[in-house]
Amino acid sequence: MPIVKEPKRITRYRGDTTPLNRTVKVIATGAVQSLAGVTEIALTVRETTEDTTIMLDRRYTDGEITITSESGGTFQVTWNLDTMEALTPNERGYEYDIEITFADGVETVERGKFIVRADVTRPSA
Fold first, then answer.
1. What is the pLDDT of residues 74-98, one digit of tens each?
2. Which of 58, 64, 76, 115 is the least buried, fewest Cβ under 10 Å from its Cβ?
3. What is the pLDDT of residues 44-77, one digit of tens each?
4. What distance in Å separates the CA atoms of residue 7 and residue 5, rounded to the nearest whole number?
């Protein structure tokens, strides 16, 4: 089942915690892909695709990603403040992908650049 994989861009300001929402669609038809029976969704960010150090890792099984509609193919990624503040701003972008484990295998459903912008306002202590 080929899923939409065209390169995308996620842009976040360092320290922002607004959730990221995504809908999974099939390439050939544009139809929504059901998430029924999914056992894992993972979003991973690395400096480069060859880098072994993970800068950011969010997972369904850790409660950091929530399926918001199985039949609608939607899920939400949440961020915590400490993790987002620890990211170094990089306008060129880091590499990320999102993989989903379906009953019949693992599929990379999205990949692209994860841009972290510097913020001006910081939370008060």
1. 999 999 989 898 899 999 999 999 9
2. 76
3. 999 999 999 999 999 999 999 999 999 999 999 9
4. 6
Rounded CA separation 64/88 (Å): 21
Rounded to two decimals, the pTM is 0.89
Domains of the chain: 8-117 (2.60.40.10)
Task: Give the DSSP letter string of 74-98.
Answer: EEEE---HHHHHHSPPEEEEEEEEE
What is the structure's pLDDT at 2?
Answer: 54
